[in-house]
Model the fold of this input.
Amino acid sequence: MSTPQVSRRNFLRTAGLGSAGLFLGLYLPDAAVAMVMSEEEAVAADVYTELTAWILIKPSGQITLVSHRAEMGQGVYHSIAQIIAEELEVDLASVDIQFAQGNEKKYGSQLTGGSSTIRGAYKNLLKLSASARQVLIMAAAAKWSVPVTECYAASGHVIHKPSDKKFHYGELVVDASKLQAPKDVALKPRSAYKLIGKPLHRKDTPLKTNGQAIFGIDKRIPGMVFAAVERNPRLRGKIKSFDDTEARKVPGVTNVIKIAMGVYDMDREGVAVIATSTWAALQGKKALKIEWDDSGFEHVNTPEIYRKQREVLKTEEGRLLKTQGDPNGIINRSKDILDVVYETPYQSHATMEPLNCIGHHRGDTVEIWGPVQAPNWIQDYISKKMGIAFDKVIVNMTFLGGGFGRKALMDYPHEALVISKAIGLPVQVIWAREDDITQGPFRPGISYRCQGVIENNEVSAVKFRTAGQNNDHFRSGDNGKANRSTSEGWLKPYFETIKNISFADVLFQTPVPTMFWRSVYASTNGFAYESFVNELAHKAGKDPLAFRRQYLKEERAAKLIDKIEEVSGWRNKGKTKGFGIAITECFGTTVAQVVKVSKKKGEKLKIDQVWAVVDCGWYVNPDIIHAQIEGAIVMGLGAATIHEITFKDGLVEQRNFYDYKMPRLTDIPPIEIHIMENDSDAGGIGEPGLPPFAPALTEAIFDLTGKRIRKLPFDMASI
Amino acid sequence: MIKLKNLLKGHTGIMRIAYIMVIMLSLVTIMAFALHDDHKPVEHEKKIVVVKDSVASVAAFKKVYRVLMSPRCMNCHPSGDIPLQGDDSHLHTMNPQRGVEGKGVFAMKCANCHQPTNTPGKNTPPGNPNWHLPPANMKMVFQGRTPYQLAKQLVNPKQNGNKDIKKLIEHADDGLVLAGWNPGEGRTLPPMSHAEFKKAWITWLTTGAYAPKNNLTFFQKTT
Amino acid sequence: MISLNINDQNYNIDADPEMPLLWAIRDLVGLTGTKFGCGVAQCGACVVHLNGEAVRSCVTKVSRAQNQKILTIEGLSKNNDHPLQLAWNEADVPQCGYCHSGQIMSAAVLLREKPDPTDEDIDQAMSGNICRCGTYPRIRKAIHMAAEITRKGGMAK
Done:
């Protein structure tokens, strides 16, 4: 997947289309990068013309579409192309796809996080693709000297209707790139879509069934060497001294150096072993003898963390994020308060592809190749940290073997560049699985104090307080405000019916670095808040689904509830026990899930089935949605019942998949997924399927056994 | 408990005699090589003398049982068809199955992970060229067996792979049995040396392979 | 020099005999379809066939594989058309895709030994392969599909 040569001479002139700044793809190169090739030369060499930032066409007709975001399993590599192909009128099968380099000016934010790619870009992509199609039609009409209205586009060609004459796009692209698209290009109505909304096969699938897909770890650069780094296991400490005698004896090891990798505002010290193969580097790393300096910060213990969180939640009001009515007043005068604490664990992202990155420090310019979620953040961070001009930080994306938020951090690209700078060669740093599990950053473990008052079988007040690490503090320090994601996951329509409610965040800090983890705060908030909704429903003597119908009056939510009730069999379940429901919203998408459990005497608790209903508004590919929801449920299952990160004396107690265990094929219940059809704006898909699973499961267990689980993870075998 | 102890004390003399006989027996075996026409040494049929001594036998089996029920032995002699793992003898992660020959099934054959030798490092697969469970038709379950049950099972040709006393004695030096004493980094060893185990094993067999009565005291761990 | 036969091609590599086959294949031979996931035979991302068996190349020393027949994902079929590859594509199994070389190589042994596997067979064959994206339901579905493709005369190796 080499970057095609691009003629930057000509660009689609669409100025005035849409509001400036929102309409991307209008990137105009500065003179310095303009192609030196003449038009004739460019045609003869069959180089690409960049019709927009996302659409490259060769004179021969070959079309390449650009994925400006990271592909980590969520399907944007395909979905972006599926959107463009619709309005551009090209056959999806015949186009190539390439990853963009980091370039925020050209593509807007490339941070692949917050399930933002499609919902953030689809309107722009539709518009620029339609504009590109329109100028191609205009170019053809001009060549034929016929009215534009007599021409139309189909399958990568412009056809003159009356005469059936046709040009392929390659024959038109150079002319088209000089034209200005009309201001109001008509977009297709949804009903006219031939591609969008269809469960088309992913274009990256074939690459992933024969070893052809190049992940970061597979990338090779001429002259590159390999490195593995032993970092301070207490996540913050420094190095007192090290002995590399044995490491240097490992065949293939060429160098050993002390380095520091930037993680947010701190520098984490480590010893890098450089070698001619990955294995030699890993062996050399094992042979290092290092004495660490672990002074100057707290060595955390997991039981302590949760004891302290409970303590501050007992006494402190925290920083208010949202409040309405007078929840405190009602709670203070009430004699019957539902007052419970939920606990959620620290988690590792544990992407299947361990962290890795190639860095090449060339002095004024630095370049990285790797599985990265946030090319622009890397550019920004490296630029500041290493004193390199922003534009001279070149970031090349590969396929990602999973991301889940971890690969949006800049630490491992920085580390690769630090080593490359020291040795003067391109170097691929690889993290062993043990590094991946023990080094973090982790999803923060958060405790939630939930208080509620039921009067006359109705909710009169709800008060939520959270105590857990705020990811933002690691980026920019404590800003004195509540975590802005304190209510993430909570359904907004509840604010209409629960008149007295508040969300607050009690400051809680540890030296453990934390990072977004799939569905971010909703992944833990959802468990606490939706479990609490279930507890409130029971206290009010209401069926948990009926309770939600009563308290979620907004139209989309109501339809979602109807649908989950219908598909899960809730409506006709009668006295059958073992059903649990939860509904959460994050990143613009609401997901309802019902879990059904059962238990035979002497056997382990069994999840019989999971039903999920997704309301994500406008969508591209229903099969990708199904896949994402399935995957999110499996990941949620692992986080709720199988694994957690714990600390003892500042050290992570888990090391690899033998003690940070993963769900396996045999653990997976049948999963049935439905998508709501409506014309609302697109919501995210990669993450929103995760949060409702844990509270739906624990509610199902409560329904079956009367046992309320308020701490994750829990062992299904213990039920 | 007191009774059993007293009994054992009273019979130490007999046990000593039994050991001496075993040692003599092996000396006889070593001397029994003879040169045949083809000038190759051939071992004569071993004659194993069994001197019945129920007390010595039971005492020896107590040691044998402790070894066999240690994780290093029991983990591959599970009651189900999934081996056990670790010093706590939990079900083997990823549920590998015994299969007909005891070598796993499909993509989950023992030797796919368990190499001819131990893989270096903690929590890595221990190795042996012949890593396997007992086959499906001869499961030789240790897990959950009482001393009485296990003793009976070990000497029952229908359950032990048709092994006579000679083959049973030889089995003490089987490669996989020996692997228990080379378990790989981070795993506890059986509760006594292989030599001590072998001695107890032979003693037990050559004193009549008595099965201890299912006495609760037998299960009490002795160090 | 160690001689490896990978996908019917001979490679002579200068490797420490202790080097895991995984790194020999990836770093020395240059076939990167086989993946590193855990290094301790826990996840199955590194599964290749050694004389037809689905060994975990991260713990298999290159000395064990010397002069034996090794098959990697790149050699499973010439045109990405092994029944499992066809089924994987039909069901769009992969998400991030990282584990699927190993998943497919494991499933290939299952199908060879049990051309029409039951769900229980699939459980027994595939529980050694971890997928963090959670594609398990589709893995199961695709293995059944591959059996069907084979039955109907699709390309089988």
Remarks:
- The domain at 83-151 of chain C is CATH 1.10.150.120 (DNA polymerase; domain 1).
- The first strand of chain C starts at residue 2 and ends at 6.
- The beta strands of chain C are 2-6, 9-13, 47-50, 53-56, 69-71.
